[in-house]
């Protein structure tokens, strides 16, 4: 957050964290590469662990002693932060992922440890991906024994397994867990168990790229008396969109509407994101116009999805960061002058809507504030241009007064 007092006061606290979203693959990796949120203490430990693990003279027992000492002397939050990082498919320390099991084992010995089925599922999926099937099956058996006959907890554990395997992209583990989950759902008379189970099946199949199979689950749900929810429809329409199967995506949107579900901002953002991933700016223009005509509000994610797909904007942002030369257009008029074709049209649609600016901007005699929290770099840039244009017009018309201070809230996102 940046606070600028008009008397010359400037404060620069640490930037606020923000939600992170997967950018289209075509964007500059340096500009939009995902970063894992690690504490400073966790960073230091992983650096030490990396050095020890790479040292040919160091034994495995030395590595395990290092882990044991760290877990014994560190706060719960830091230890869990490191474990989550090691389990993540997007970890920046993949060479240390083999140490996730011994790290977890040490955590289970801590006085503060509470058994967590989601953590176990993530560990099982990682072990399966590494081909360590005996160890993964042992963890599953221990978990099922711990849960015993508590049906709701059992179905949630298998749901976690399906989700974790799908995120790791582990087909073997996913297929096994999917079969087990399906068996639990089939044997249960509980509506809750069936709903949770089908949610995980549809979501997992879509994550694995098996969207046609996910849509077929809809028929199975109806046979078993379970209504297809907005969640399942969203999973399938976005799954088709990510694969570039836009006719199927639009068909599912129509089906969703025919079953009484309103297309909302979240659905619109999914559709825009799908078009953006395939550089379909022309389709994006038409959908933005349809969204505005339907009086569906844009959101910060709308800005992120659209602007991450704009090649000229992303190129000039990357150039500015890499060279430090100030070449960015400093008004919406100047920006429009360097854009062309469909890219110019999608930016025009965003600029002509004030819904997001009204949401993130406040202005009175005490404080003027612009909250960029959650925005990616391109979104921050365009929003600041809109903000400056709004202020220029507002001061000219007497709508705004000069506040005591101006606050700019900056989220640390993909940049």
From TrEMBL:
PROSITE patterns reported in the protein's UniProt record: PPR, SMR
PPR-type repeats, residues: 194-228, 229-263
Pfam family, one: PPR
PANTHER family to which the protein is assigned, alphabetical: OS02G0120000 PROTEIN, OS03G0856100 PROTEIN
Organism name: Quercus rubra
Protein name per UniProt: Smr domain-containing protein
Occurrences of domain Smr (ranges): 370-415
Keywords from the UniProt entry: Repeat
Family: Belongs to the PPR family. P subfamily.
Record has Heme as a keyword: no
């Amino acid at each position: 957050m940046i606070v600028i007092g008009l008397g010359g006061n400037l404060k620069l606290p640490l930037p606020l964290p923000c939600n992170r979203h997967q950018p289209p693959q075509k964007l500059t990796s340096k500009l939009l590469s995902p970063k894992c949120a690690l504490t400073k203490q966790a960073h230091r430990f992983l650096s030490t662990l990396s050095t020890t693990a790479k040292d040919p003279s160091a034994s495995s027992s030395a590595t395990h002693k290092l882990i044991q000492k760290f877990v014994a002397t560190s706060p719960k939050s830091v230890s869990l932060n490191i474990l989550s990082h090691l389990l993540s498919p997007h970890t920046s320390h993949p060479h240390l992922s083999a140490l996730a099991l011994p790290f977890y084992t040490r955590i289970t010995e801590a006085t503060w440890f509470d058994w967590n089925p989601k953590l176990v599922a993530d560990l099982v999926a990682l072990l399966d991906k590494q081909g360590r099937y005996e160890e993964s099956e042992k963890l599953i058996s221990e978990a099922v024994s711990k849960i015993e006959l508590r049906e709701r907890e059992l179905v949630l554990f298998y749901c976690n397994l399906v989700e974790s395997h799908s995120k790791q992209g582990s087909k073997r583990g996913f297929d096994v867990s999917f079969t087990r989950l399906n068996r639990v759902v089939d044997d249960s008379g509980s509506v809750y168990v069936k709903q949770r189970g089908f949610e995980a099946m549809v979501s997992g199949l879509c994550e694995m790229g098996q969207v046609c199979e996910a849509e077929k689950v809809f028929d199975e749900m109806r046979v078993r008396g379970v209504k297809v929810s907005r969640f399942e429809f969203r999973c399938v329409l976005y799954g088709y969109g990510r694969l570039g199967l836009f006719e199927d995506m639009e068909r599912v949107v129509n089906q969703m509407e025919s079953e009484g579900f309103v297309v909302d901002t979240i659905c619109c953002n999914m559709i825009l994101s799908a078009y953006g991933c395939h550089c379909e700016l022309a389709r994006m223009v038409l959908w933005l116009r349809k969204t505005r005509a339907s009086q569906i509000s844009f959101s910060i994610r709308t800005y992120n999805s659209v602007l991450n797909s704009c090649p000229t904007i992303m190129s000039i942002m990357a150039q500015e960061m890499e060279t430090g030369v100030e070449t960015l257009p400093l008004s919406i008029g100047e920006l429009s002058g360097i854009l062309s074709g469909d890219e110019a049209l999608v930016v025009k649609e965003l600029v002509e809507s004030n819904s997001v600016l009204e949401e993130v901007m406040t202005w009175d005699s005490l404080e003027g504030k612009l909250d960029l929290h959650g925005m990616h770099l391109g979104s921050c840039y365009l929003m600041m241009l809109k903000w400056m244009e709004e202020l220029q017009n507002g001061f000219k018309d007497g709508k705004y007064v000069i506040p005591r201070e101006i606050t700019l809230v900056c989220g640390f996102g993909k940049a």
